[in-house]
Amino acid sequence: MATENTSTYASGYVQPEVDVRALTKVLDGEYAEIRDLVRTNLVTYASVLEEAEELGVDAFRERVRELVVDMAATGQTGMGFPSEYGGGGDIGASIAAFETLAFGDLSVLVKVGVQFGLFGGAILHLGTERHHEAYLPDLITGQLMGCFAMTETGHGSNVQALGTLARYDAARQEFVITTDGDGARKDYIGNAARHAELAVVFAQLEVGGKSEGVHAFVVPVRMGGEVAPGVRIEDDGRKMGLNGVDNGRIWFDGVRVPREALLNRFADVTTEGVYESSIENPDRRFFTMLGTLVQGRVSVGGAGVNAAKVALVIATKYAARRRQFEAASDAEEQLLLDYGLHQRRLLPLIARTYALHFAQDVVRTQLHEVFSGIKDDAPARRRLESRAAGTKALGTWHATRVVQECGGAGYLSVNRFAALKADSDIFTTFEGDNHVLLQLVAKGLLTHYASEFEDLDQLGMVRYVTNLAVETVIEKTSAHKLLERVRDLLPGGDEWDQEAGLLDSEYQLAMLRYREEHMLAGVARRLKRGVDQKRNPGVVFSQVQDHVIAVAHAHVERLVLEAFVDKVRALPDGGNRVALGLLCDLFALSTIEADRAWFMEHGRLTVQRSKAISREVNDLCRKVRPLAVGLVDAWGVPPEMLRAPDLVG
Amino acid sequence: MATENTSTYASGYVQPEVDVRALTKVLDGEYAEIRDLVRTNLVTYASVLEEAEELGVDAFRERVRELVVDMAATGQTGMGFPSEYGGGGDIGASIAAFETLAFGDLSVLVKVGVQFGLFGGAILHLGTERHHEAYLPDLITGQLMGCFAMTETGHGSNVQALGTLARYDAARQEFVITTDGDGARKDYIGNAARHAELAVVFAQLEVGGKSEGVHAFVVPVRMGGEVAPGVRIEDDGRKMGLNGVDNGRIWFDGVRVPREALLNRFADVTTEGVYESSIENPDRRFFTMLGTLVQGRVSVGGAGVNAAKVALVIATKYAARRRQFEAASDAEEQLLLDYGLHQRRLLPLIARTYALHFAQDVVRTQLHEVFSGIKDDAPARRRLESRAAGTKALGTWHATRVVQECGGAGYLSVNRFAALKADSDIFTTFEGDNHVLLQLVAKGLLTHYASEFEDLDQLGMVRYVTNLAVETVIEKTSAHKLLERVRDLLPGGDEWDQEAGLLDSEYQLAMLRYREEHMLAGVARRLKRGVDQKRNPGVVFSQVQDHVIAVAHAHVERLVLEAFVDKVRALPDGGNRVALGLLCDLFALSTIEADRAWFMEHGRLTVQRSKAISREVNDLCRKVRPLAVGLVDAWGVPPEMLRAPDLVG
Predict the structure, then answer these.
(1) Nearest to B467 by CA among B541, B568, B525, B371
(2) Does the predicted interface ipTM exceed a cut of 0.85?
(3) What's the pTM?
(4) Which residue intervals define the domain Acyl-CoA oxidase C-alpha1 in the entry (chains A, B) (predicted)?
């Protein structure tokens, strides 16, 4: 180990230097201005980090509300709304603002997400002018608080099966909203327990006795601070974290709202009591409606990555000043960050954070282009939805893992790990459970193979393959062609990857592409085989579920690496480019290393080469180590957000 | 995938049934009585689980103190003390009681650990009759609360380098205790912020200007509820969890205590002011003193395993009743536990919990035998210390992982995941940071190879290899012999493992033994090579640190598997034996699977065989699935400890 690595230094490797300010510019990109506004606001309201501990639940909820309203006044939270209603008219900037807000207290972040993203987003995207005029101006200032009542106790991820009913009463031109059994109570609804006056309620629409599927309605849940008649609200109580957000349960007992309460952008009930929609297919209609809410996923994924940054800044600065016994000499103990094991724990996480940051840039740009009409067509929406699901899953899992890995020394509340841990875990679950999201990604991929499943319709298999997936162009790919595609992934032919340089990004990309394609073909074959054997499709799907998740994960990791490689290639020469190149290699090779068993099992890594990759990862860690503090400083996390005086002081 | 597995059913496999009550007897073993007493107490005081949320920090600390005193009155917490002072005189039972207490609120557990394990244990094991008579009766009832002031801000794991001074003033026959600089303040000390009247203070003893190393002293820190003169105490404040324990910082400013305050079992200062000790070597003396405190590690490891059980019971019962969409049929959604992915996440964790439970039995028995004088010699103490360190590390990491994996659905405080997560994380750090503990294990292993390091003394390498390791018989093993040993590990010769049955426990054990021996030899070689190249020993060690941790981890996993295999073999025929056999296979094969890249890289797994192991793990999961609820019920976690009414109700 030692020998191979020292040779690198001997062969003329020049350690780059990081220009922190220039790197921050690269990272902040086109949204530097709004990010700096949020940074300023975070510092102004930094006391909220202490208040999160010191105040009781009730007082803290009020404090967070106050602060959200104050921040709204700076324009920070309304960037995504049209300027005619007082918004900033820039969807990309609104996501960037939300991401940056994740450096601070996460209750504030989630309250902002609930009010402006979920509630405001539903009014904006599912409603029409009458709703915009009635609600947008006041909700953008935070004067009118609302909640997004989708999730039910009995139905977490399966929104199409919600139990709440909205029956149309043609005589009175009203909808009657009813909670149909306790499983249909709305649950975990942010803003519900205290502050919401309105709720956007997702319910099964029934018109003239016919069920038309899930639609959204604006329902007053409080009037003058009192819970509205027919509405029952229960407080979800103290949670593990995010106690500044007032989550609650809501029941509706025949609550009547006017016909105009239906958010009618995609479907309406006419004054004559006729249901009509511009989208004929009910499934397509449903997924089109849901699709407009994709910004929530993009936001949460980016927020996860930024929460991870806070933990990594603290951990890196701590490791760069904390000495530990097991010293190099008796006189002075060695710095934590000089230990191989510690480098191995920390530096690949920094590399992955950079990778996910640049992948987030890509999905944010896609979102901006679709929702600003710059590039809005069906394939672009499909790509966006799949990518948002995958990036959200990887970004929030990363946050959980980073906080876990870095939090060892940080048990006291005075540094931020306790709060980060308590507050960020749920990110993997809300805005779509990560496992469910990856299934969505996989289903999108699988529809490419749908031609192999001609006889599946009768068996119901197609339901599992395409149910959640948005429509996809079906490629006529035969099994034979598939194999060729897999081979085509290796630019230098079948054996090329056995000789290619480990630091060749084409090699790294080819490895991740190969893994993805091979896994995808495997899942398709397994599903088909199960169906050919006339086995219960549900059982078959259940048995390949881990493969489904794995292929989606592999797909998203490949996209993340592509984003990182593209970014590095586009940078001007200099220390920052060299440094990011090292990080990109570290991300790619540690990702391959983590799955090296799979690559060996599938003939793409020899034992020798697998070991060489591990040595290269060690070597990259040693090269990145002197850059570590600069690399985390470049994220521009305000020092006030770190707390942890004993650790980083 | 499907084909291979269905064949198992076709070939006459008979699904066993679990006899839950009989299995509980097996698990509770000889300590069923004390475990049942603790279960009863847990149910009696079950309200503490709500109080942990509802009460403020101050009130909750008082409530926990009250409860600990009440439990003490039942005899539960004093089992480890001699009966002449009011204890139970059964060290094994005291550990079993502590383990069982981990089903409940973990603040209560840790308060018990601080008071009776750390404080009481130090008085008992480091003190002599005068200390026993003065303190044991009152501390056993909980009337006299104390703390264990070892950790300092500047020195977490490196106790030999503590900064607190205890200078002997021969004229007045007193020790003068002084905090030497802010890094020497005692920190994170449980019971310090509020309740402790006494502290056992670890400090550098100086007699006649000569430093004699770290010794322990009984120092009053409060008198009549007021902090004693010369003592300063600061509250560590709110923590992420365990807020029922009053952790604090302590400074000493020339605090004088009489000569008799030295806990003098292993060393004393005579009335004439002469330092004397029955153990000449200062290092050996120090490690002998520390060694008497090993029960803390044994306790925490067992507690970690039992905290994991609580999370697994909730998660398993939830998965066995919760239906999810992606259903087998339109009519009824499929149970979570019927999903392959869910089985893969949950069932190997249940298997590993069983494995760690039986490994805990072994280390508890060793502890009992050593400390009851049944089998107390130097090699037995060495074995105990190494095993306690390793079992603690694996048990507490397991708890963190299980709580993380199972906690997805459990975000609200009303079920126990929030508390479990917040309270149990620190288990991996206290009573010895897990990474440091595994280094200790590894050093014990490495001393076997010390003969290969003849020339290391001058270079200081031996310091890294043996510093923390307890004395060990040095085996005269040459590198050549080592290789033979590795080969000897495969009972049927060099290629035997390529053909052996995957479910043959001899095969499974041979794989884990091979991994351990090979890694150990590798670390030894790497250290030697670095030293031969005259490189800085600290740097060399830093670069092999991950290998050092890995070998220790491999060693402990092998011990855990051995304990499980032994247990299954000793069971009478019947459903429980078959069920535990399945679990044991699942533990062994999922452990090998998790490290299959290593086995492939080291020629012990072919690609085909590696894939076969994954298929076998899937198959075992499907066989264990119908037994899952019975297997977790057998742990005997009182239902009141589960809370989570919505999840398991």
Answers:
(1) B541
(2) no
(3) 0.81
(4) 291-446
